[in-house]
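Please go through the sequence and fold tokens given here and tell me how the chain folds. Record follows.
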Amino acid sequence: MGVNKCIKYLLFFFNFLFWVSGCIILAVSIYLKVTKDGNKITDEAIPGIDLMISIGVIIMVLGFLGCCGAIRENRCLLLLFFICLLLIFILLLAAGIVGAVSENKAKEWVKEHLLTMLPLKDQPADVQTDLQKLEEEFKCCGLVKGPEDWDGSVPSSCYCNDTSQPCEKVGSHSVYTTPCSTFIITFMENNMIIVLGIAFAIAILLIFGMVFAMTLYCQIGRKEGPTTA
């Protein structure tokens, strides 16, 4: 029995798209990594750029393996490709389960990570500038505890210019009392649906890739069987 050409070229096309998507993820991630417009506070709180770079590289390698295995009808490459997809699928499933049951732990991790940056007045000037941009945008002050995170040197970005927000008197100025970590965590929660949607789409692609790879692997085995007998 010969190899189904439709399956072969469907797998090749799938892996080509897989490889292209890896290139795009890697290119965007590197751009975000080297750009000077990123905010150091959010980078510290949500360290996802390095993870995106790793994912992009892995997807590129897997896409290349799949393309070579499909077009050359190489069982070894196809089996390696299948095992890698299966491992990624299991890790993705485990991460989804852990993320669903450990949402509160993730929030606590963000707060604990931000606590290491206190007191804020001892941080480098560029970090303080980025935080003050967040304070002006979200009408918050400090990172975890509020104005006291500045240890007495509250900047003008904390001054309460919106009376609809919670404020308190600190010295001669009225300042916002809501810590910026509240808005960082809210941002994470609001984008969780998008992340879950992307993860679900990747999981579907992984399943199709595994099915195509194993089907072609078995067909090549049946084709080579009589020859090696």
The chain has two domains: 5-107+192-228, 125-180. The radius of gyration is 25 Å. Residues 125-180 form one domain. The first helix runs from residue 5 to 34.
